[in-house]
Amino acid sequence: MKTLLALVLTLATSGAALAQMTHGDMPMSQGTITKIDEKWNRLTIDHGPLENLEMEAMTMVFEVVDPAMMEGLSEGQEITFMADRVKGKLTVTEIETE
Length: 98
Prior knowledge:
This protein is of the alpha+beta class. The chain is 18% helix and 41% strand. A hairpin with a 4-residue loop joins strand 1 and strand 2 (42-47). It is globular.
């Protein structure tokens, strides 16, 4: 009985820990902005691997979750960012300048 109780408690706490994982638990990616499209709120980024999306390094276009994130950015600027699928579209959800 004690073994069963210990097993149940272990499974319950590990499930809770998984439920608390957020983007903050995933490593952010490095990249260089190659194009800024303010009209459509998009950034073209030459980036390293995106672990959370299981993507290799490449250059691709991303939407931004909040247009205010684009303020102060410039083409050629190196960034650290997190991207995810938002409503089926690849989207920058966090961005930091270097």
